[in-house]
Request: fold
Amino acid sequence: MKLDIEFIIYSVIIIFCLIPLYIYRKEIYSKFSKSGNIKIFIKDIDAYLSLHYPKINFDFSNILKKVEEEKDIKIKEILVVEDLVSQFATYEYELTTQTSVSRDKLWSSYDNNSKLLKDNKFPIDWNQRKEAAWIRDKNKCNRCGTKIKLIDSQALLAKQMRNGGGFNLENIVILCSDCARLVRTSNIEKTSRDLLISDRLMKQVKN
Ligand SMILES: [Zn+2]
Reply:
């Protein structure tokens, strides 16, 4: 009988000790996961980038070495993201003329409106041209390969108007907003600080 009472007392004590563990399980888990595996994070980011930015060849070969000194997993992950965003921003790319669209997909005023206009004006059917180029490029950015909605896409001229480039579809290149900003900027470092890709990758970092 005495043993039974002792057993009950110890059981109750153990249960009371376990209750906070249960209540604070999330906090406890996140504390332990702070020393989590950076390799898994890099693998996930690699898969994400291959899917969403298939045209950029991200280099993961030295990335582990670059962050090995850092102990905190969250800072490690942020450093990885910063490195990848910098790779995205400095990826070499040049605007070039694109493939033609078959004539049956063009409209009657197409040829006439392809010519340059006075005062660098854009033709009246510019939106139609942008949409035709966006469809030709399968709704993807020409530089990074990310999928974009028509409304979020930017149409740039491969050969500038000042160099005699016209509005024919071969001269229209479709880019995502990040790539358009990078192509236009004279300060890549400053522009790369607030790119969409940075926000997207930072969402993968542990809180
Ligand atoms: Zn892009």
Residues 141, 143-144, 146, 175-176, 178-179 surround zinc ion (CB under 6 Å).
